[in-house]
Design a protein that fits this description.
By secondary structure, the chain is α+β, with helices and mostly antiparallel strands. The protein has a single domain, classed as 4-hydroxybutyryl-coa dehydratase, domain 1 (Orthogonal Bundle), CATH 1.10.3140.10. Helices cover 44% and strands 14% of the residues. It has helices at 6-16, 34-51, 56-59, 80-97, 104-124, 128-142; strands spanning 20-22, 25-27, 60-63, 68-71, 161-165, 171-175, 184-186. The longest helix is centred in the middle third of the chain and has 21 residues, at 104-124.
């Protein structure tokens, strides 16, 4: 299943039972909350357009990584034409929705991770790039929604340890919960993604 339907995406959100807080209060159900529901609906649109023959050229692309047509938001650009389509996809979805699909930051992160892991393996003899490609294969095969986010790193009782401040005033989170990040740079103000598909 390289292309998920909007209904399958919403079912995946229900199975996930995400723990979301907004303005210091827990959101009990992101599908019923008027603020978070708009995020879900915007993300669902990216799944609907990928299945619509009218938008196939802009929203889907053949992935040699898995040998199937995938949602462009899960694809790693390999040519100038791919990069042009990437920009057109962002413009198209923003114009159609009047907002973000919340997948664009994850889409950008794939490109950063691909080059960074490749360079690290080349320079340090590590094996991050093949692991990244395995992750990307899973994202493409399952049509997962991946989004970038900042998470409140000094929240009470959330399992975060705050590292020393850097010269820019940011601080480093050196550990977090099992399903979060191990090391990232954060600032005092933050937002979080609720639209990403579950990754155990």
């Amino acid at each position: 299943m390289a292309l998920m339907t909007p209904e399958q995406y919403e079912k995946s959100i229900k199975r996930m039972k995400p723990r979301v807080f907004m303005n210091g209060k827990r959101v009990e159900n992101i599908l019923e909350n008027k603020n978070t529901r708009t995020v879900v609906e915007a993300n669902k649109a990216s799944y609907a357009w990928a299945l619509d023959p009218k938008y196939k050229d802009i929203m889907t692309v053949y992935s040699p990584l898995i040998g199937e047509v995938v949602n462009r938001y899960t694809y790693l650009s390999a040519s100038i034409d791919d990069l042009v389509k990437k920009a057109q996809t962002g413009t198209f979805t923003s114009e159609m929705l009047g907002t973000c699909t919340y997948r664009c930051v994850g889409y950008d992160a794939f490109h950063s991770l691909a080059s960074t892991t490749w360079e690290m393996d080349r320079d340090l003899g590590t094996e991050y790039h093949p692991r990244f490609l395995d992750f990307l294969k899973r994202v493409q095969k399952e049509d997962l929604s991946v989004s970038g986010a900042l998470t409140e790193p000094h929240g009470s009782g959330l399992g975060f340890q705050r590292g020393p401040p850097s010269s820019t005033g940011a601080f480093t989170v050196v550990s977090a919960t099992q399903h979060c990040f191990q090391r990232a740079v954060g600032r005092e103000e933050s937002t979080a993604s609720i639209a990403s598909s579950s990754l155990p």
